Description:
Layout: E1 2-6, H1 10-22, E2 27-31, E3 49-51, H2 54-59, E4 64-67, H3 74-83, E5 87-91, H4 98-111, E6 115-118, H5 125-135, E7 142-150, H6 176-179, H7 182-191, E8 194-202, E9 214-221, E10 226-232, E11 239-246, E12 249-254, E13 259-263, E14 270-275, H8 283-295, H9 303-325, E15 329-330
Parallel strand pairs: 1-2, 1-4, 2-3, 4-5, 5-6, 7-10
Antiparallel strand pairs: 7-11, 8-9, 8-15, 9-10, 11-12, 12-13, 13-14
Helix pairs in contact: 1-8, 3-4, 4-9, 5-7, 7-9
Amino acid sequence: MKALIVGSGSIGTRHLKNLKQLHPKVSVALWRQHGRQPLADDISPLVESVFSSEAEAVAWRPDIALICNPSPLHVPVGLALARAGAALFVEKPLADTLAAGRELVETCRALKRTLFVAYNFPFNEALLQCHELVQSPQLGRIHSIRAEVGQYLPDWRPGRDYREGVTAQAKLGGGALLELSHEIDHVLWTSGTAQNVSARLKQRGDLEIDVDDTVEMTLELSSGALASIHLDLLRRDPFRQCTWAGAEGTLVWNGITNEVILHEPGVNNRRVIYSDPKPDRNAMYLAELEHFLTAVDHPQLCEASTQRALQVLEVIEAARKSSRTGAVVSL
């Protein structure tokens, strides 16, 4: 098997190492669209060829391509590689616009190419437990969901100038809404499709960036439940949590402590459903990559997650429109 990695940032490097761990004999090439600095010592031995142009990458005829460059480049790169015969593993978000995302999905569908969008929380063991409980009768009818994530952007990658990273730059698809869209995806995955969106996008901090650093949105789901989602690049204490409030109980996932807690009716009726304070964070990345590799010859195995990735983009575009107009936007 021939695998092409597009982009050599932190996530591309992680996927490269994981691919070689799962399939040591795979032939790996790297397509670097920007930067000519030498490869890091830990990945250089894993790479057989390095390309600097689309023509070189396409001519190599990869069987699979892991697209890990900035989101505005996902679709042009994905279209070229799908047409060259590659199954696609695309880092989240699928694209920076809904129209571009739809073009890639429709092209892959017409070509019968596998397309997987790498939202990795459906492969997180704690959230898998949440998904099972939310889908079961145990919580009763879900009334509301609250998902929150916040972390101070300069702390994301210590030792690097955060202003030069993807998250800080609009032209690279940065901002809280796109970069932290994991929360939108896992709410749709656990709790159902969105029908209406209202949102406010703000630049509240002093980070010297040209993108939104704070987002507050409300989704009305097909079930009638309301889901509120908060995303920010400013919070000094890292925070990630989701709460599902149902008629028969409340479920809380803490993404920092890696716990799932169920609050059932009655006083002090609190039960720890799942706890792993020292998880192997790479496990979910390995699991999603294994899922993709299983689906390379079976595109239908990725259809549900790909459709959900498109709805994430629908929600993102609706949130932008709602913030501009002050109106609730129907999907």
